[in-house]
Amino acid sequence: VWSVAFSPNGQFILTGSFDGTAILWDLEGQKIKTFEGHSDRITSVAFSPNGQFILTGSWENSTAILWDLEGQKIKTFEGHSKLVWSVAFSPNGQFILTGSKDRTAILWDLGGQIIKSFEGHSHQVTSVACSPNGQFILIGSWENSTAILWDLEGREPKSFEGHSDWIRSVAFSPNGQFILTGSPDRTAILWDLEGQIIKIFEGHSNGVTSVAFSPNGQFILTGSRDDTAILWDLEGQIIKTFEG
């Protein structure tokens, strides 16, 4: 499991894997739908805000793909020069954000047109997220093990430093007041917007590859190279481990 996401209604989980598939699950661990079509590993998955579409990023041809819930491809986004590490929807569902090994993040409309490219990182962009109010984007990269909060004009107001290895995944809390980061250092960290560490989540036996908040903001989900996903409460207690 390389990437995980909650559905907006909190009833389903989406996972993306190195086997080139994405799988939709219920909360009891039953498979609902398998999305097949990528010829290489899936690096990132996301639900649209209305829950009707999913977005996958892949090593395949530096692309991201928009799907409906029946597994049909709606649109392929091409524009990066290297593999896509991370994908996200804007809160209104009208735009998508991608981060790439080519050291850039790109904001697109749903027709596949580039709205803005965020450049200037000295290392590959490994994770991206849009704030709930749509005014900021959060970028994680190999750059100094930090996450950076940008506004849509490209300014750089805040860096989040605390991991001992690069940032693989980033997420905003539903209320926009906290961020979550995951790293190959096997931990996830909960931060406030001033860069203060609130909680460190430790429990995986290998690097954390993906992090997400539940829609109500009371739980977090982490995916790892130890082949598990873990559901936690905000105090760092493990609620359920998903294996398989």
From TrEMBL:
Q: The organism sits in which domain of life? A: Bacteria
Q: Which InterPro entries match?
A: WD40/YVTN_repeat-like_dom_sf (IPR015943), WD40_PAC1 (IPR020472), WD40_repeat_CS (IPR019775), WD40_repeat_dom_sf (IPR036322), WD40_rpt (IPR001680)
Spans of the WD repeats?
1-28, 35-65, 77-110, 118-153, 160-194, 201-235
- Keyword Repeat among record annotations: yes
Q: Which UniProt keywords apply?
A: Repeat, WD repeat
- Which Gene3D superfamilies does the record cross-reference, listed alphabetically? YVTN repeat-like/Quinoprotein amine dehydrogenase
SMART domains hit by this protein:
WD40
Kindly give the PANTHER family that the UniProt entry links to this protein.
TRANSCRIPTION INITIATION FACTOR TFIID, TRANSCRIPTION INITIATION FACTOR TFIID SUBUNIT 5
* Entry protein name: Uncharacterized protein
